[in-house]
Amino acid sequence: MKNLLYIAILACLLAGCKKFDDPAAWTPYEQDPSWTMKTIAELKALYDDSGPTTITEDYTVKGTVISTDFSGSNYNNLWIQDATGGLCIKIGLADYYLPYDLGRIVYIKVRGLVLGLAGGQVELGCADAQYATGYIEPQSWIDRVILRGDMDPAPPHLNPAVISTSADLAANVGKFVKMSGVTWTGVSNPAGVVTWADPTATGYTEQNFKFTGSSSSNFVVRTSVYASFALGLVPIEICDMTGILNKYNSTYQVSLNSATDVVEQ
Q1: What's the predicted TM-score (pTM) here?
Q2: Secondary structure, 3-state, the chain
């Protein structure tokens, strides 16, 4: 009798564990024929130069994730890309790399969201009284407007546009790119050590780089002081680097996903 009781208790425990650890399978979203689709370029064109523009139409934008905040870089900035360009989405979610991992297709339901201008570049977020766009939050709203699809079989980060001269910068803003044959030109931190970020600073630090053959700096690498590689040494030899190319006013910026995005030649 006692053995039967033990068996019954064990069966209940096993059943309970199975129920807890085996949730319903997650099904990636697929493009719905009823959706009115817009490319990233078409979405950006909706921005009204008079100021932040609220999207009132029920449009959907499809793109592939090209950023990750796994290393602490690109914090709250979710970047996506399609054949027409790239877009920064202001997202109030830490560790967004978990649901929106690098190379994943996402569908953005943009009605009610806001297009704003930051440093001359259009970005997507929500209404904010202080800034051009605010962060999309809370989680329940994020889940409704940023839908997870399948992994892209040919994601941009595995086939980046290669840039080796300053002439190619303007056409690739917002995209995942490979900067080929670049050299550091400054600036070191107060201790005279060349690290990606200044340990005494807050926010971000910029390091200047130029293409081979250029006489002056062509772009900066912008790194958060909270990135896991912030105190890593900047290579002073010619190198290649991959990252997201942006432009703030007249300055071209590259945002790295990780320290492994930079390789000395």
Answers
A1: 0.88
A2: CHHHHHHHHHHHHHHHHHHHHCCCCCCCCCCCCCCEEECHHHHHCCCCCCCCEECCCCEEEEEEECCCCCCCCCCCEEEEEECCEEEEEEECCCCCCCCCCCCEEEEEECCCCEEEEECCEEEEEECCCCCCCECECCHHHHHHHEEEEEECCCCHHHCCEEECCHHHCHHHCCCEEEEEEEEEEECCCCCCCCECCCCCCCCEEEEEEEECCCCCCCEEEEEECCCCCCCCECCCCCEEEEEEEEEECCEEEEECCCHHHEEEC
